[in-house]
Design brief:
Distance between the termini: 26 Å
Radius of gyration: 20 Å
CATH architecture: Alpha/alpha barrel
Number of strands: 9
Number of helices: 12
Structural class: mainly alpha
Largest sheet: 3 strands, antiparallel
CATH topology: Glycosyltransferase
Strand content: 5-15%
Helix content: 40-55%
Mean pLDDT: 96
Order of helices and strands: HEEHHHHEEEHHEEHHHHEEH
Strand order of the largest sheet: 5-6-7
Number of domains: 1
Length: 396
């Protein structure tokens, strides 16, 4: 049973509606500019991957390690779809081989983020090009992800050794975005184990990660031996009882991804409620602070959360009936946020950075990726550009 949550009324965006033609021209310009930047990064990064975030404006380059490498591969697939330029596809396909080696060797795979890693690299490759090796790599990754499912707790553990008492039973809001790999694996194989685990996890996420007021915990702990709920807290947010902006954005988008595969319209209702909470706490320029509890302060913004939310809002609009009174308001908010990102957060042509979307916050407490570009912010900004500028079939 889903937790009862309070439904907030969505406020209108203050000011006049976005002019559709002006916005269309703005998107076309931003798309052209962004493709040029990605072409430059393609040469600059070579066979390496950007690290999670920039350091003083520039991404350190790494091998295929950590949870974020596929966000660069995902940008390459999007850039190829937008432009048809073969160098984007060629490098993305070389990345697929790298992800194959990574999963075969079980290198840095002790994470639920296998969903991010293999959806945006190998599932995307299979969907776009029919690469059967990519399909096999993604199915192997789904098997490894399934190992992280705790049957008593009915959740997929986020990080670390499955019996580590510090990590055991931890689920986080981010994991909703990793579930499509499991649903896809069931579609491909007919094996219900994958989708059943995904559905069990999203039910627990709905029940325990969402608070009464439609804000979200970043983290919730379950007892893996009894299945009992323990407590919620934050790893990333301002406080245990605040609302980490990126987590709320993952929720807006992630519950919808489960709806796409299951048809459970409760997921759409949850996405709406989380969206209302998020949108009702935006500052004047419509780009959120790094924690939604900090609205009205001079706290840093997190552009990556804004980009994720734009993608989630555009997906939400697709699944609402035309009679829904909030449908047009979600569309307007998505346009307002995107316009602000285009004008004030997108890196300029001659700017001292090799990222795309400036002013994100990865982890403030450890001073990691603070007021920098980050790899997921760059990816979701490009996905939002794709969604606004042409018809797009999700990699998710």
């Amino acid at each position: 049973m889903l937790s009862k949550i309070v439904e907030e009324t969505l406020r209108d965006y203050p000011g006049a509606p976005v002019d559709a033609q002006v916005f269309k021209d703005e998107i076309a310009s931003a798309r052209s500019h962004t493709l040029e930047l990605i072409r430059r990064h393609l040469t600059e990064f070579g066979e390496y991957f950007p690290a999670e975030t920039c350091v003083q404006g520039y991404y350190p380059l790494t091998d295929n390690v950590e949870w974020t490498t596929s966000f660069w591969t995902g940008q390459l697939w999007l850039a190829w779809e937008m432009s048809g330029d073969e160098p984007f596809r060629a490098l993305a396909e070389r990345h697929v081989r790298s992800f194959g080696l990574r999963i075969a060797g079980r290198s840095d795979t002790n994470t639920h983020d296998l969903g991010f890693l293999y959806t945006l690299s190998c599932v995307a490759s299979w969907r776009l090009t029919g690469n059967r090796d990519a399909r096999a790599f993604a199915l192997l990754a789904a098997e490894v992800l399934l190992e992280r499912f705790h049957h008593k707790a009915q959740i997929i553990q986020a990080w670390g050794d499955l019996r580590d008492p510090e990590q055991a039973g931890r689920m986080i809001i981010d994991c909703n975005m990793n579930l499509p790999l499991l649903y896809w694996a069931t579609e491909q194989t007919g094996d219900r184990r994958f989708a059943d685990a995904a559905q069990a996890h999203v039910r627990q996420a709905a029940k325990y990660l969402i608070r009464e007021d439609a804000s979200t915990f970043h983290t919730y702990y379950m007892d893996i031996d009894t299945g009992a709920p323990r407590y919620g807290n934050t790893q990333q947010g301002y406080a245990d009882d605040s609302c980490w902006s990126r987590g709320q954005a993952w929720g807006i988008y992630g519950f919808l991804l489960s709806f796409i595969y299951t048809g459970d319209r409760q997921m759409v209702a949850l996405s709406k409620r989380l969206a209302n909470y998020f949108l009702n706490r935006l500052p004047e320029d419509a780009v959120c602070h790094w924690d939604l509890a900090l609205v009205g302060t001079d706290a840093l913004r997190d552009s990556s959360s804004a980009a994720i939310a734009v993608c989630g809002l555009l997906e939400l609009v697709k699944h609402l009936p035309v009679t829904d009174p909030d449908r047009e308001r979600y569309q307007q908010w998505a346009m307002r946020i995107m316009s602000s990102l285009n004008k004030h957060y997108l890196a300029g042509k001659n700017e001292a950075t090799n990222g795309l979307l400036k002013h994100s916050v990865y982890h403030l407490a450890s001073n990691k990726g603070v007021d920098e570009c980050c790899s997921w912010g760059d990816y979701f900004y490009v996905e939002a550009l794709m969604r606004f500028s042409q018809s797009w079939k999700l990699y998710w």
